[in-house]
Amino acid sequence: MKPRARQPSPAPRGRLAPHARAGLAGTLLGAIVAAQPVVAEVPEPLGLVQAIEFAEAHPRVQAAPDAVLPPRPQPLFLGCHTLAFGDARAADQHRDVGWSALLPPATAQQLEIVQRYFDVLLADLSFMRDDEAMAVGYIQYDRADNRRELGQVSPLRVAELEAAYQIIRRQRAASDASRRLTRSLLAQAIGQPTDLPKTLIEPPPPALPDPLPTLDAIVAAALADNPRLGELLAAGDDAADAVLAMAVRQQALELLLRLELLGVAAQQTKIEADWRDLKLDQSRTMYEMEVAADLGYSMSQQTKARRDESAVALCTALTLAELNALQGKPLIGVGAGAGAGAARNDTTEPSLEDTD
Known about the structure:
By secondary structure, this protein is mostly helical. It has a single domain, classed as Outer membrane efflux proteins (OEP). Helix content is 61%, strand content 1%. It has a two-stranded antiparallel sheet with strand order 1-2. Helix 5 packs antiparallel against helix 6 and helix 7 crosses helix 9. The longest helix is centred in the C-terminal third of the chain and has 51 residues. The radius of gyration is 27 Å and the shape is elongated.
């Protein structure tokens, strides 16, 4: 009598057989791919206004109003409220982002793009700062190691300098990785997650309106011209409208105060940068005269000062954009157009290779 052929065991109730699960996964993957928005390629180099134009087609903007979406990741470098208010308190994640629930989806997406764009610029400047600092640290360690072989420096001092160099080297590696991470966040913000921008056009410094609009004028414009606020006012009762008006007034006040503090910070960082320029000139002159001079240290400190100055300028531009958005105005005034400004040559595709 022939043995009976073994039949495959049926899948337990509530579960799909392996071949069925594979087919369903393929169907879902195909649906996800088909749902991806089709937009233009990312320009190279990429300007700020060009980046903002991607906002309207972004899935966050096209999603249904009641769709449950994951929260936006926090920026890595650009926290403008924390920068302006200094040590008033720990970093405030809610106040440090440009987007808010008081804005239409497209406007919120535009502000995210602006903040991600500026975050990339700061990531590049931070990498330049840490790259130069690492070079200085290595030179100091290498010189001490050579002098140790001659009996002029103790092994303890060499070990101390090498430990300090390794700390800076680790920071430099993190800065290099941050260049790719900030570009990925910008690519996500413009709806092109697989096309990371390489070179960005640096916008010109922002020009503050003189005089700044009054608090009452900003609140009145926001309540009259902001489409999102109009929707919320139409849907609420008197109590809800009063709470909304207070929230608008508070946000407008915080943005105006931030602009004032950033103006003070701009003066401080400019004086610091000018001093570092003079210090670098002095160190370069002493180096050329073959007089002992720490030229590398002066260069790294100058790069740090310029990075701090740029952070204040970018926060000023972002804050002005937030004020415009709150009032229902376009963001075109936050930076240069597609052809304005200079392309940053140091924004090529980052890598994590150690170049020391």
